[in-house]
């Protein structure tokens, strides 16, 4: 039995200010997706990497990703409208011999081969769903609905968040509680799963749409929704997600500091 990776790369680069897909944005001369695929292959534990790419936008990915990395075949499949749909499209093309799946985001381009091995080993050791995570360093508050000072106005932005209204009033959120950060982890990828469990989780969530779908931002969330146990193992700083231009600058720094 073997382990395969699904590498999600079908998202847009909007928040990064990129014209095309974020996964093609260069970091030290190489697109993020190639960094991520190279590290998955270098782990020595995956037999294939399936990359989900924007539907109709395969050509630029095919030109930057070799058919093989370190002897590991790299295949492209058309992703879907959501991350969840993209992962499902990747799962659908895995061979019958694959019994462990690692789901990884191209946006976490610098997650190291050691982290890939650690997650895979934990799944092989019998935990059916494993995610890397880091302790949270900020103080965290749970907040209520945004409000503005009496006599001013606020309009809501496209993403549902408040933006200053015509009167320029800054929004404020009432604090409901301070959350005990000791029991929180900021979760990363690659996330590792027993393949049958992940297939079941995706099948159960396939009907979700709208807010319900967007609230589930990782595969472990789908597994949790089934009532199955999910385990956290130590993550790593360099597995940070590149979302903004600032993140890209931090990733460049990490590379300069000797990450490979
Ligand atoms: O947009 P965000 O950074 O949260 O996306 C997380 C990962 O999911 C990225 O690697 C992105 O390329 C991928 N994705 C995808 N298909 C989508 C949306 C996002 O493969 N429809």
UniProtKB/TrEMBL annotation:
Site positions for Positions MEP for the nucleophilic attack: 181, 241
Gene this protein is translated from: ispD
Protein name per Swiss-Prot or TrEMBL: 2-C-methyl-D-erythritol 4-phosphate cytidylyltransferase
EC number assigned by the record: 2.7.7.60
Cited function: Catalyzes the formation of 4-diphosphocytidyl-2-C-methyl-D-erythritol from CTP and 2-C-methyl-D-erythritol 4-phosphate (MEP).
Pfam families per record: IspD
Pathway: Isoprenoid biosynthesis; isopentenyl diphosphate biosynthesis via DXP pathway; isopentenyl diphosphate from 1-deoxy-D-xylulose 5-phosphate: step 2/6
Top-rank taxon: Bacteria
Catalysed transformations (reactions): 2-C-methyl-D-erythritol 4-phosphate + CTP + H(+) = 4-CDP-2-C-methyl-D-erythritol + diphosphate
Region Disordered, residue ranges: 149-168
Entry-linked PANTHER family: 2-C-METHYL-D-ERYTHRITOL 4-PHOSPHATE CYTIDYLYLTRANSFERASE, CHLOROPLASTIC
